[in-house]
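Worked problem 6 (solution included).
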Amino acid sequence: MRLDKYISNASDYSRSEVKKLVKQALVEVDGIVATNPGAIIAPSAKVYLNGDHVTMPGPRYFMLNKPAGVVSATKNSEHPTAIDLINTPRTELLQIAGRLDIDATGLLLITDDGQWNHSITSPRSDCRKTYQVTVAEPLNSHLVEKFLEGIWLEGEKRRCLPAVLEIEDDHHAQLTISEGKYHQVKRMFSAQGNLVTELHRIQIGNICLDPALAPGDYRALTPLEITLNGAGGKEQNA
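Solution. The predicted structure is:
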């Protein structure tokens, strides 16, 4: 790979900026000051920029506690995006594995590993998502059975798959679904004459939102969490 491309891929520097750094004698390859930004370097080469070792990043996996007002998108001209909250080089390579509405909060998974993303969002996989739900009208205990039977949504040809509703009090519940129809959680409650006023996702598959993360904060997934994604499930805005 060309030296300038290598450093650009491993950092936030553009290739034109890398050329300037080379001219300033700030780049070394295998202990020798580089003079040609277009030089081809070996895969085993050790590259240093201003004394710091430059390495190609491997796949990245993050969990983000999405705050309200942030869109689940890579770019948006009107609102801040989830990707804007991630401070890492090459954010343009990051993807969101399962979206949330702008007013919904909680767990978002973000990666540049397309295969891992697909394992979560593939419609052929069963990926359970758990939400904390706040509603406007009092919850009735008969809804538990209704959700287990599968809710009919307007415009759909089939019932929703069985969902597990745990009522906490008159206006709060925890809901686990295993599919991801458009605005599904809100539409499920609306079909029962209720309005979702707050929606907060706490789990995707076997990955739980870290309670230590404040809204807007993120952290890298642990190796165990990366392997715990379990199975995917088609996910659109909840």
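Discussion: The chain has a mean pLDDT of 91.
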